[in-house]
Amino acid sequence: MSITKPKWFVREIRSTEDGKVVRRLLDSLELNTVCREANCPNRNLCYNDGTATFLIMGKHCTRGCRFCNIEHGEPEPLDPTEPKRLAEAAAGMTLEHVVITSVTRDDLADGGAGHFAETVESVRRALPSASIEVLIPDLGGSAEALEVVLRSAPDIMNHNIETVEELYPAVRLGADYGRSLGVLERSSKSGFITKSGMMLGLGEDYGQIERAFEDLADAGINILTLGQYLAPTKNHFPVKRYLPPEEFDSIAVMARKYGIEEVVAGPLVRSSFRAKEAFGKVLEIKRLTNV
Q1: CATH superfamily of 7-289
Q2: What is the pTM of this model?
Q3: Confidence band, pLDDT 50/70/90 cuts, at residue 197
């Protein structure tokens, strides 16, 4: 049985000419964005601000996570022109902070690490002043594949654990909690600003949330995003509870208690929400503490 979406999810965002320009540019270059493919509730706001989170390596994911709106299916061959086209779009949008994510590609020997690296390098050439954030899959837990991405030198290494460990078998098919923490820990130990994200409202309890925060802090993350889970369709994992905004505030305080430097929390927060702002805050903390 579904539960009614509360009033704090009601948001009127009118399309603007800036948003239309972004859509036309993405369509003309045949690029995918997670904004559209994952049905993000902030997509019009981001488009109107002239920003987008790019989705590389096709529209089909090799996993079938029960929370995700991206299609599961046979993936397309990698397009060698995609990195250059994405860089062209980022330059055309004059982005200051570029977020690059992907579908999971377990069919590729390196999980797509080489394609990620080439995309980062293409954006760096086209927009040398922009900061670049990559939101990567777990790459099958391969340290060698992760090193390929790290060598491309993104400014932020992001990998979402998505939910608490206890819910992985029901929600994250094909994923492994320890493997995801390993991606974050190796990135952090390599000196990168490291980020992760979680959805709330899947049935987790406070004890499980707190243990996840402790694990993330031990892995060395700098930035954490916390948002409300929304079931894309009735066939996806059901929402168990809607958390009010003030509860997100108190949970964010809990996360900061473990030393996570920047926590962005709220019902409509998603992984790339206020990404540039969060990156700037962490850079300032590191400057002040000489880390």
Answers
A1: Aldolase class I (3.20.20.70)
A2: 0.91
A3: very high
